[in-house]
Specification:
By secondary structure, this protein is of the alpha+beta class. The chain is built from three helices and four strands; from the N terminus they run αβββαβα. The longest helix is centred in the middle third of the chain and has 15 residues. The two termini are 19 Å apart. The relative contact order is 0.13.
Length: 127
């Protein structure tokens, strides 16, 4: 794994606090999926603004879609995507975006199947 993707030791505590903020924020949502009473996955939804030079001023952003390995391939991510899409539509947004790590080819294929297309390629390197 690239060093830029290495998680902090206390990443679970940090994520828990981040989730608390998302739940309380007006322009974000944390949605969860359950299968037979078990937490199967979650999605983070946010309303973001573009740079002021673009005609599309606001868009919906999937900050994260995660499904536990034992529930993958069972439509959980699609259900999260559809629920998120409904929420963005209710907010009056016309466009949505999602990030994916380049090496995550499975997620990229799913997102393209859902109609997403590549827009930017962000590249990194050490100073």
């Amino acid at each position: 794994m690239k060093p830029i993707l290495k998680l902090k030791r206390n990443h679970l505590k940090i994520k828990k606090e981040w989730f608390k903020k998302l739940v309380r924020a007006r322009n974000s949502r944390l949605i969860v999926a359950e299968v037979d009473g078990q937490l199967a996955g979650y999605a983070i939804l946010q309303v973001k603004k573009t740079a002021p030079v673009f005609a599309v001023e606001e868009y919906g952003y999937f900050g994260d879609i995660y499904v536990k390995p034992m529930f993958r391939g069972k439509g959980v991510s699609t259900a999260l995507f559809q629920a998120g899409r409904r929420w963005f539509r209710e907010k009056g947004l016309k466009w949505i975006a999602i990030d994916v790590h380049w090496g995550n080819t499975r997620a990229r294929e799913i997102y393209q199947h859902w109609g997403f297309f590549p827009r930017n390629l962000e590249m990194w390197r050490k100073v």
